[in-house]
Amino acid sequence: MKLILKIAKNELRNLFYSPVAWLTLLVFFVIASLTYCNSLYSMANTQEVMIRNSNPGWNWLPNSLTSGLFTDLYKNAASYLYLFIPLLTMGLISRERNEDTMRLLFSSPVTTRQVVLGKYLGIVGYLLLLVAVIMLFMVLGFFNIRDVDYGLFFSGALGFYLLVCAYAAIGLYMSSLSVHFIISGIGTFMVIFVLDRIGMLWQEYDFIRDLTWFLSLQHRTQTMVMGLIITRDIFYFLVVTFIFVSFTIIKLRSERESKPWYIKAGRYALVMVLALAVGYTSSRPALTGYMDTTATQKNTIPKEMQALIKAMGDSSLEVTLFDNLLSTTSKIKKGLPVSRNPEYLAAFWEPYLRFKPGIDFKYEYYYNIDPRTSDSIWYQRYPGKSVHEIATKVAQRSDIDLTPFKKPDQTYKIANMAPEYNRMVMQLKYRGRTEILRTMDDVQTWPGLSNVAAVFKRLLEPEKISKTYFVTGHLERNIHILGERGYSAHTAKWERQSIINMGLDVDTLNLNFQDIPANATVLVLADPIINLSPVVQAKLKSYIESGGNMMLLGKPGRQYVINPVLKQLGIQLHPGQLVQPSYDETHEKVISRFTPEATSLSFEAGDGPIGTSTVTAIFSDSDSNTAGYTNKPLLLTQTGKTWLKAGDLVIDSTLPPFNAAAGDVVKDSFTTAVHLTRRVKGKEQRILVFGGADFISNMRLSQNIDFIRAAHSWLTYNHFPVEIPIVMPKDILLNIGERAAKVQKIAFIWVLPGLILLLGIILLIRRKRK
User: Fold this and answer.
1) Mean of pLDDT values over 20-35
2) How far is CA 649 from the centre of its chain?
3) What are the backbone angles phi and psi of residue 687, rounded to the nearest 5°?
């Protein structure tokens, strides 16, 4: 060991007497300083301006400043190692050959292994300086960021150092192959480049997909930079280091021995077999360990989701990906074999595999066209072509092998994807039950935590699945209409926030011809336009009397249609329409605020305010038999800002002045939504009433989605959506202002690099004089 340390010390001394080493350190320091200081200055300037001019309580929520500053720093620093490592390592062995000191070195009482390990230890020691540069900015982060998330520092520094050590091992081996520095440097660059990109090669071929993905460097440091340490990534870097250091020992030893070629080749093969065996074993999901170093555990699925997975126990969960070549979501190729490892398994399923490593993944690729969706554009693009001919054209154009893709009739034998519009979905099977986990028509594509939790809970607790029926037959709001008045966004299978992707079953019900099913959990009557028939009113009355849950939504001008039903509940919609004069908006747009009852509906509710466009007031009807209902307001108009306009309201004209003689009503605040509860047959009956129906229409739903999801959750006794709390970061403010950030910028971009340059020049001049 003493000899190894002496060789390492000598190698480290040679590096510090080299202009390349000083120049590398200087350039790396400047790059890191530019990345950190520019981002810090921009953030400090923005924070100071916002707090001074906008809101004293302003912060960077929901963003983590530690992650924002240091993620870019790590990534930028790692990306330039392509240039630095080849420059530093190209002379490790080549220099000994050029200076003809290799023979002298091997003639001394030192083994090849000691020489190689000593030189590797020397370069690794120098690379600690690059890590020290990163750690210097970590120290700054402790002072610059309030409540800094220091766990990111540990994981990021570890990932960065493991990466540079692996790169150094590659450079050491390449240096042993040639006497020419340039060739060694280029060789190192090429090997690093190949290992970085190999994970994207041949991913469409089953027999080599996992091998190239395992060899890839590309995704290894990203998880550590984000604060997640995975044992298989640590083993990977150690395996890569072992391979190339061992190769270097074998190469130098082979030059001194007269052995048959197959013995030399066998040594290389033995190293590879051992390395791949360790790498394969360490990458098995059941043997993989995880450590989330972030303060908010943002890389770990929440405890609620972990509880669902734990409830599955050791029972197998089978996940089959159905991907349609001609589906809109397949156009981004996230479901195709080429994206299976990076997009599907690593990016989406990895957090769940951490807690349930035995998931059985299967894949079914097919092609079909559903004329109900925009996919029918294929027929316009390829007129007169059959589905098979269109699929052939698309596959040729996208350079995709059509062989694995099943024809429509073959797919029907496995599963009927027509109810899912032949889109890309995942079919989950657990203990004989089957549920569909859908992909979304947005940039993220894959379902979120809430969507996955809903499907898992449906598999585990089928008895809690609720059935929500939207009443039709009187021109009510329709869950299949895409227009402004429609409610299709509630039930769109490709919308992330739709209630069916939160775990609810939704259907329509025409009470003129159908009875209310016994399995109905909630009945929704949304803005009927024509009078309800006596038959329908009788069915609704019977349903309410029996304790059924309901959501009722009216609209100004049509109060007379829904008020007969509301009379049974002891409330009525007030004649007229609420108006809120505003300079920026038309006067029918009324802002309502939440009451404590509204925020307690569900964890989803939020705290308002909420836009209730085209709405009227709700009041208690003293002449009605309330049958023991507890009536509490959910939404109230803003104090002193609204009044009730009697008669018709013309939106596109000037708002008439308040006229009490015409029936206009003014109050401090009006109730626009209420909930009613009572005990019936041993359970709590829950009813929601809204004075307007537009605020949850397709146009407005995205603005009020949290509240409407909370409403559906409350009506279904909070079984769905599954409660997945969001933990906000604490490092949301900087401790410094714009001026202090500017001083740091000058010091670290100009002053300190100048001192490093001066120190290097002085040391090199003194060395030259000696």
Assistant:
1) 89
2) 45
3) -135, 135
Q: Where are any strands of DSSP class E within 18-160?
A: none
Q: Are 606 and 707 spatial neighbours (Cβ–Cβ below 8 Å)? A: yes
Cα–Cα distance measured from residue 119 to residue 244, given in angstroms and rounded to the nearest whole number: 13
Q: Please state the φ and ψ torsions of residue 114, each to the nearest 5 degrees.
A: -65, -40
- For the chain, give the percent of residues with pLDDT over 70: 94
CA distances from 624 to 26, 368, 559, 619 (A): 83, 57, 16, 12
- Match 């708002």 to its residue by tokens: 655
> Beta strand pairing status for 549-553 and 589-594?
unpaired
d(CA 238, CA 282): 11
Distance of alpha carbon 143 from alpha carbon 380, whole angstroms: 61
pTM to 2 decimal places:
0.87
How far are the Cα atoms of 85, 369, 375, 376, 425 from residue 326, in angstroms, in the given order?
45, 6, 7, 9, 13
- What is the Cα–Cα distance from 329 to 36, expressed in whole angstroms? 38
**Tokens 């062995």, located at residue:** 93
Q: Which amino acid is at 199?
A: G
> How many other CB atoms are there within 10 angstroms of residue 81's CB atom?
20
Burial class (CB in 10 A: 0-12, 13-18, 19+), 598: buried
**Residues 559/573, Cβ–Cβ less than 8 Å:** yes
Task: Grade residue 329 by pLDDT with cuts at 50, 70 and 90.
Answer: low
Dihedral angle sign, alpha carbons of residues 732, 733, 735, 736: positive
Kindly give, in sequence order, each residue whose CB lies less than 8 Å from that of residue 173, ignoring residues fewer than 6 positions away: 244, 245, 247, 248, 251
How many Cα neighbours within 13 Å face the side chain of 734? Answer: 26
- Reported confidence tier of residue 511, pLDDT bands at 50, 70, 90: very high
Q: How many CB atoms lie within 10 A of CB 179?
A: 14
